[in-house]
Sequence to fold (155 residues):
Amino acid sequence: MAVQSGKDLLVKMDMTGDGQFETIAGLRATRISFNAETVDVTNLDSQGGWRELLAGAGVKTAAISGSGVFRDAATDERARAIFFNGEIPQFQVIIPHFGTVEGPFQITGVEYAGSHNGEASYELSLASAGMLVFVPMTEGAGEPVDYLGDPEGGA
Fold:
């Protein structure tokens, strides 16, 4: 795989609940991370005293963060409304030449900043709030695969 442009990592949100996703305008930097807790099943019979983990167990989470400048009143206002109303809408993250991650996220942090001689900026933090579905960006990839191990993406 060739080097990818960071601007191609897009965070999109469902603006109205109708499944139409719009890129959150003004983002300059974005990040998505995936984590899985381990479930330790080590016992006195564990070979050589080595730790053993239970496969497929534990809580899986994803976090999205981004920072940028104000560019679009509609997405800026929607993000503020989602945060203050405690909504959990659908989001998409487009990972270039890898695929799309989609699912419910809660905005857990909004920060605004500005300096006397610079632009006003903002930072968003989001936490996964349910099952995520991964759709690979390959031809003939078949059914979506979710991060809970359901090969049919829960559909």
